[in-house]
Amino acid sequence: KSNSFCTLLDRLMEFPKKHVLRVAVTGAAGQIGYALLPSIARGLMFGPEQKVELALLEVEPAQNALRGVAMELEDCAFPTLANVVCTADPRVAFANADVAVMCGAFPRKDGMERKDLLQMNAKIFSEQGKIIGEVASKHCRVVVVGNPANTNALLLALAADGSIDPRQVTALTRLDHNRAIALAGRKAGAPVKNAIIWGNHSGTQVPDVNSAVVADGAALREVAKADDYFDGEFIPEVQQRGAAIIKARGLSSAASAAKAIVDHVHDWILGTPEGTFVSMAVWSNGNPYGVPENLIYSFPVTCKDGQWTIVPGLTISEPIAKRMQATTAELEEERAQATA
Question: Does the annotation place 190 within a ligand binding site?
C-alpha cells in the first residue's frame, strides 16, 4: 500500500472530538447492560465533560424492559446524558454510532452443540457487522462482549467488508485482565499492572504475569515470591473465575463485566497511562508474536488517540508459549466451525 493510502486509512480511523458521542449498546436490557449504562451515562467511559447519546438495541420481547431501563437513566439526571433511544431495529441503533458495545448474543441452551452456538451467533454478528459497515460512523469503534466474543468479533469485522477497518473491531478480555491483576495484587499485597491475557476469552485463555510489575515498578514475581502459585493454580483460577461467580451467585458476572467494558473503551479512546499496557482482543494481522493472521486474539496493547498498538519484544516463557498454541488452535477451530 502507498504511504498516501495508509495516511488516508489512518485519518479515517482517527477518533474525532465531538460535542455528543453516540454509543450503541446491544442486549441493553440484560444484566450487563443494566450495570453498564449508568457508568457510560455518568461519564466514566469518556470523561466527565463528554456528553453521550445512548442508542439501546433489544429484541422485540424485551422492549418494555428496555423502556424501564431508559426511564431509570432519565431519572438519574446525569448531566452528561444527552439522549436515550430505544429500538429493536439495528439500523436505528447503529446509525452514526461512534462506539458500539455488543453485549447481546444467542445464549447456549441445553443440548446445544458448541458448533450450533457458533453458527447461530455467526449469523447474528455477520448481519450486525454488515449493518454497522453500512450505517455507523466510519471511525466507529466496536467491542464485542457476547460469547464466543473473539470469533463473534472476527465475523463482525469480516462482514463489515472494509467499510470499517478490522482494527476498529475488538473483543473484551479486559475482565480476564482485571481478574488477573486483582488476584496477583492480593498475593503481592500491592496494586499490580502489566499482566497479560493471551488468546481467546474462554477456558484456554493464557494469563501471564511474567511482565507484571507492582506500583513502584518492581517485578511482581520478585515482590510476591510466589512462583509456585503463579505457575500453578493462578492460571486456572483466572480462567475459571467466571464459572466460580456463576456457582456462587447463580448469575454470571455483571458489575465486573460492565467495569471492564468501561475500562476497555476508556483506555482505547483516551489512552493508556505511560508505562502501562492492558489486554485487548484485536486483529492479529502483522502481530510480532507469530500468531496466525485473521484472528481476533488477545494481546498486550498500549493505546493512544483511539488507536491500539501491540506491545512488542516481551519475553514469552516456554510454558506460556505452549498454552498460546492451544488457545490459537481453539480460535482457528471456532473460525472453521462458525463459517462451515
Answer: no
Shared-domain flag, residues 232 and 328: yes
242 is in an annotated binding site: no
291 assigned ligand-binding residue: no
Task: Look up 139 and say whether it is catalytic.
Answer: no
Residues 189 and 324 in one domain: yes
Q: 312 and 301 in one domain?
A: yes
Residues 165-192: pLDDT tens digits? 999 999 999 999 999 999 999 999 999 9
Domain match, 156 and 196 both: no
Task: List Cα–Cα distances, 277 to 81, 181, 266, in angstroms.
Answer: 30, 12, 13
Boundary of a domain, candidates 138, 171, 204:
171
| pTM for this entry | 0.95
Concatenated DSSP letters of 231-273: HTTHHHHHHTHHHHHHHHHSS---HHHHHHHHHHHHHHHH-PP
Q: What does the pLDDT look like over 37-95, one tens digit per residue?
A: 999 999 999 999 999 999 999 999 999 999 999 999 999 999 999 999 999 999 999 99
Number of domains in the chain: 2
Question: Domain containing 136: what range?
Answer: 18-171
Active-site choice (19, 139, 177, 201): 201
| CA distance to 160, 216, 279, 285, per residue, from 310 (Å) | 23, 23, 9, 11
Beta bridge partners of 198: 206
